[in-house]
Amino acid sequence: MLVLRRRKTADELYPQPIPKKDNVGAHYEVYYVPKWNAMLSSDARSPAYQVRLNYDFKISDDNVNKLIPPLNRQSDVMWAVWKTISPTPNKLRYIGRSGIINDDTKGIMDDIFRKGPTGKPVPWPGLTFRIDTEEAQALLATPNGLAIAYILIDRAKQLGRRKISVTIAASDPDSPGLGYRMLWDLAPDVPVLPSLSLPGPGLGLTFMTASTTTKPRPT
Q1: Euclidean distance between the first and final Cα of the chain, in Å?
Q2: Cα angle vertex 77, ends 35, 25, to 5°?
Q3: Comparing C-alpha atoms, which of 153, 163, 19 is closest to residue 76?
Q4: Does the global pTM surpass 0.85?
Q5: Deepest in the core among 6, 26, 90, 138, taking most CB within 10 A?
Q6: Cα→Cα distances 24→27, 52, 215, Å
Q7: Rounded to whole angstroms, how far apart are CA atoms 198 and 134?
């Protein structure tokens, strides 16, 4: 069982202005549509991952932490921008991910598609699951779902009561290279809990945590 609890956000951990560090080449590509209370992430490469990549994955976690900027988590970055451009940030309704090509996330989605009505990936409008289903909770625990999970947990006070569901679809079932889509609907209704317990794969699903194992530097 993976249990996610609220973390201190970047503005709680660090004084303003947040201290700057050298650019490591990381990026989060996010499209914001305040009119629809929506934001869509299409590409993400975290500072921690980029630092490891820069060092050919031969760097310790302690040294990674020395090189990344304080504002580095995707959930914090997405919310920091959202609250500056949306006149009503607490009314956030949709959080989407497009072009998903992460193997672990796609593996989960493929398992879910196989158990669906057609037994294979389907185009939009796809398949929809409530947050209390094993499918939705497995998706929330994937590398592409964790940032959304932490937005829900860390910003529970701002978001208030919500009825959460997720829709998954293939960008183009005939072109797997285009990746998959994931859309979270945060409809106002029930409370967003301060912690979420994500059960194991009762439906034969597998989920990954966000941790990364690094190879030791050769001596």
Answers
A1: 37
A2: 120
A3: 153
A4: no
A5: 138
A6: 9, 10, 20
A7: 8
